[in-house]
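A common beginner's mistake is to predict each chain separately and then try to dock the pieces by hand. The better habit, illustrated here, is to supply every component at once so that their relative placement is modeled jointly.
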Amino acid sequence: MSLLDIWLGILQGLGTTAKVTGYGLIFAVPFALIFGVAQYLTTGVTRFFITAVIEFWRSSAVIILLFVFYYALPIVGVTLSAMTVSAMVLGLNAGGYASQAVRAGLQALERGQKEAGMALGLSRPAILVLIELPQALVAMSPTFINQIMQLVKATALVSLVTLTDMTFRAKEIAQTEYKPVMIYTSLLLAFFVVCYPIALLGRWVEARVKPGRGSPHGV
Amino acid sequence: MQDLPKTAVQIRTLNKWYGAFHVLKNIDLHVQRGSRVVVCGPSGSGKSTLIRCINGLEAYQDGAILLGGTMLGSQAKATALARRQTGMVFQGFNLFPHLTVLSNCTLALRRVLGKSRKEAEDLALHHLRKVKIPEQAHKYPAQLSGGQQQRVAIARAMCLSPRVMLFDEPTSALDPEMIKEVLDVMIGLAQDGMTMLCVTHEMGFAREVADQVVFMDEGRIIEQASPKAFFGGAVHPRARMFLETILH
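With all components supplied together, the output reads:
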């Protein structure tokens, strides 16, 4: 089996890797936004419960969550497909991290921004949507790009719940070909080929949003 | 049209605490419509806190504030009303850095007053011309000098046609050579008959424009006089000391 065959073999798993990442984002993005904003706006008991949910997804080991949701839940009658479990677990884990970036971005804004909005008579939701979030999300965009790349790489774990992703394909080929160095190096490269464009996209996004940024005191 | 009440702002025995710290003590202040009141005093005297109470940026525990005869409570509705009637200019400008100068000015016109884009932009450009900066309308705040940013902030506040303009040390964050351009705009507003309440250390401005100078120390108003009387011979020793330090 030539190097090209190995490559093509591994890339057969690309669809699954992409799917897990894509569905994962469907869980991650709303979770990060809703919980990050909620943690920023709430206090007391409400904030405690919101923090508890974030910490559950952020502080648990992904591999254990995968096993629990895929192998243990059916015992209590809840059966989810491997794709659903993978997207949900990886997505909410990444969303947990990203929610902290959302919150940090909001907290890092100058208090004067909110006050200026209040003085102009804007409602609290309007201040959040029109003034705070646009600035916070732009400031945090490098962190979000990091999170997406982490999510892509985390998909290497889904082979443990039967999905045929790139890692699973590599393992399959390794079993028949017995060329572990060549095969796993190819897998490494395959992940790089997927992740590097995301990094480039991130730089492009950052460069594009820059003109509107800068300190309001920029004299 | 309904006659506007003669008193624009009326503050009655206002008291405010930050925890155990009594920051405003029995403040009584009347601002007549069309008058200019300058509030000065050493830092920590409560002057910024006082004007921030007027538009509800700070809550207070005791006393009353009436805006154009309407009592302000702690209810959201009353606060919203107060913010519709007042415009505020901050020490740090607080322009929205992600929006152009024009969008900074049109944001509240469109989202609070529900004006169309065209209507809002026309109004914004009118006020940007008044602060002599219409050519910067499509730039972002970070591309402007401090003085220009503060003039935009004044235009932004004026767009909502406030009955009272509140200034919280509008020139304190500026380089010396930019102070004049901002003060000139403020003098222009005063000449147009705007009711103004300014916290400032610009005594030249106070002398030229104010009808009334209020001197605060340790949360109290300890002297309240015409600029002539205040600068000619402040009664309170603390005020005299302050003037000596600031005028030399």
